[in-house]
Write a structure and sequence with these properties.
elongated; 680 residues; 8-stranded mixed β-sheet; alpha/beta; single chain
Length: 680
């Protein structure tokens, strides 16, 4: 090509390109390649309004197909919504899922992140937006033409399920607050409430509530220091915690330093008078205060059900039902012909209960006989009573409380197989009291609680129970699965010359404490760092100092002062010099204490399976010469144990992951041996 011709082509090229574009070349787009990292791809794929504040790629694509974009919808949501509803080219799933996400975005904008104390929890406009978000999510899941199981592996369904669950959570909290306010004003708690154009009813019958709850807390809004794990189950529904009023506990009169003997004697007289009034009970107790309670916080899974049997009905209705389920009791439900797994949080209620309990301070106040301690054992059910789940009964140690079991109980309730087969009970008891008295009152409280729920002892829960005790709780657990015969009583008689009225007086008060049978239907026991034969530390200088600080309440002094006065007046066959006194728990834990020495020889129920978990503080020592800082190996070791696990740890070994794993291993082995019960 000559230079002149080339020059002419260059001059004509712009005109030729313009003509090409005019003839239709504008329909061709320039496509280039942009490299996207795999991590960015996954983030973009799963990003949505809940985790970024921006619409998901799926919703943006749907808007684009309808000739819209996110900014247009932010400026005029109603026009955006109408356009999506009238665009025929969109399939039902695209339309419903995008509208659910758009309503979530609108609701987030209307819902303040922080509420002032005097402000209502949410405006009607915000509640309406959350209900619409839930409605469109509900319609997508059950009325869009495909079942949830058909979309089981689709990311979009997971996103829409989350929109529904989150909207159900927000709406449930508002509905609960309004229903509670109506109930406190004297109206029926279950009466439907109105919010704008909506009518909302609630159904909590499955939860068997004993009173009007105080609060409904979204499980996802709380986390806990001191808990290693949070256990939950993915599924359908909002994960919530329903908070009730805590139970009333018996608070004893305090034995202050230098309390007058006549004060104690007056209390004893009063106790004796009241004892004759309380008929039909096996032991003295304040009948106005229950010996048991379910946790004051319970896990709840809430569903919003929209009235209607067709997509058109669901999109028109203004009637909504809030259903509450226990996630421990119900794993799945049938909804519109589809079996749907329910979401569940198994840690939040337990953590919230412990955080609000005040156990840590109260247990120490009890030990040292200060005000606001407790005076009697109290049984706590960690889940609502279930007749088909076997009972695990946990007993804490000296100066402790149910908080000692925080991680172990959480791991048991978080393990799906253990949760299906077991329910956890715990006892909270005054650890300053003598061991024999605590054993007696704990057994009565436990048996009274079991009889309340299972009067005939015919359910699965009343059979093949497992006892777990730590420290002094391990000693109590061992005594609960042992027969005393006449050993403890004869040991007392061997040291005192008791006859006539003195013998009768002592026998009436101490006889029931020193004569006992093993608890029936206990199939296995686990003893953790338990000083079965006492400890020398309780008798050394530090132990004696702590023992002097421990104070028994007047309720105990009043019950037994006359008995120990009778013992003091009796001829002592040993040396005739020591004046007997009411022992506290520290006295009973001394290796030289007559009671603990005699109790250590009692036979464990024949056939009972039992295990030991023992802590060793210094790994360089031989196990036989080791201790955990408080309890020596020789005292924790029990001949005949099916297993003995020694863990490098201090005395609070029950908190360690190794001990938790060992308990779980034993319980899984127990299920294999005893068998399982089918769950719904």
């Amino acid at each position: 090509m000559t230079p002149m011709i080339l020059f002419r082509w260059q001059r004509a090229l712009p005109a030729l390109l313009a003509a090409f574009l005019l003839l239709g070349g504008s329909g061709c787009a320039m496509v280039t390649v942009k490299q996207v990292a795999s991590s960015d791809y996954l983030v973009n794929k799963r990003a949505d309004v809940l985790n970024t504040g921006k619409l998901s790629p799926a919703s943006r694509e749907t808007l684009s197909a309808a000739g819209l974009d996110e900014s247009q919808c932010e400026k005029d949501f109603l026009v955006c919504r109408s356009t999506l509803l009238m665009t025929d080219d969109l399939n039902v799933e695209q339309r419903l899922s995008t509208l659910s996400e758009l309503w979530v975005k609108a609701a987030l904008a209307l819902t303040p992140k922080k509420q002032a104390a005097n402000e209502p929890p949410m405006s009607d406009a915000a509640l309406d937006a959350w209900l619409e978000a839930a409605r469109y999510g509900y319609a997508y899941l059950f009325y869009s033409g495909r079942s949830p199981s058909d979309r089981a592996f689709e990311d979009r369904q997971t996103q829409v399920r989350d929109y529904y669950n989150y909207a159900a959570e927000k709406a449930a909290v508002v509905l609960f607050a309004r229903a509670r306010a109506a109930a406190l004003a004297g109206e029926d708690y279950t009466k439907p409430v109105s919010a704008g154009s909506w009518t909302l009813a609630s159904d909590f019958q499955r939860l068997s509530l004993k009173s009007i709850p105080k609060q409904l807390v979204p499980a996802g809004t709380v986390s806990f220091v001191g808990m290693r794990s949070t256990y939950r189950r993915d599924g359908f529904g909002a994960e919530l915690v329903m908070v009730m009023d805590p139970p009333k506990l018996v608070v004893p009169a305090v034995a202050a330093e230098g309390a007058k003997a006549e004060t104690a004697q007056a209390q004893a007289t009063k106790d004796e008078q009241e004892e004759g009034v309380r008929r039909g009970r096996r032991h003295q107790h304040d009948d106005s205060v229950p010996e048991y309670s379910e946790m004051s916080s319970i896990n709840v899974t809430a569903l919003l059900r929209f009235e209607g049997n067709t997509l058109e009905d669901v999109m028109r209705t203004r009637q909504v039902l809030l259903d509450g389920y226990s996630p421990e009791a119900t794993e799945r439900i049938t909804l519109h012909g589809e079996e749907v797994p329910l979401a569940g949080n198994f840690t939040a209620a337990y953590g919230l209960w412990l955080a609000q309990s005040g156990f840590a301070t109260q247990s120490l106040r009890t030990l040292f006989g200060m005000s606001e301690g407790i005076g009697e054992p109290h049984i706590y059910l960690m889940q609502p009573w279930d007749p088909n789940r076997r009972i695990i009964f946990m007993l804490h140690g000296l100066g402790s409380s149910p908080e000692a079991w925080v991680n172990l109980a959480n791991e048991i309730m978080g393990d799906p197989e253990l949760r299906q087969q077991f329910q956890v009970w715990q006892v909270y008891y005054p650890t300053n009291a003598p061991i024999a008295l605590n054993r007696y009152e704990i057994a009565n409280a436990f048996n009274d609680t079991l009889q309340h729920f299972d009067p005939n002892g015919s359910t699965r829960a009343s059979k093949d129970m497992v006892y777990i005790g730590h420290s002094m709780g391990g000693v109590l657990a061992r005594l609960l699965v042992s027969d005393s015969g006449d050993v403890l009583w004869n040991d007392l008689l061997a040291n005192y010359n008791l006859k006539g009225e003195r013998l009768k007086r002592v026998q009436s008060k101490l006889g029931p404490l020193l004569h006992f049978k093993a608890e029936p239907n206990v199939e296995r026991a686990i003893f953790i760092a338990a000083p079965h034969q006492g400890t020398d530390i309780a008798g050394n200088k530090v132990g004696r100092l702590i023992g002097r600080l421990v104070r028994l309440p007047l309720t105990i002094l009043g019950k037994f002062e006359d008995v120990f006065l009778a013992l003091a007046q009796a001829e002592q066959q040993v040396d005739g010099t020591a004046k007997p006194k009411i022992p506290n728990s520290i006295d009973n834990l001394k290796a030289s204490d007559p009671f603990v020495k005699a109790a250590a020889q009692l036979p464990i129920t024949p056939g009972l399976k039992y295990h030991s978990i023992i802590a060793q503080r210094k790994p360089e020592l031989a196990v036989e010469k080791s201790d955990d800082g408080l309890v020596p190996y020789w005292s924790s070791h029990l001949p005949g144990a099916l297993s003995e696990k020694v863990i490098i740890s201090g005395h609070s070994v029950q908190e360690t992951p190794q001990a938790v794993l060992e308990v779980r291993r034993i319980l899984h082995q127990d299920i294999d041996e005893v068998g399982t019960v089918a769950r719904p």
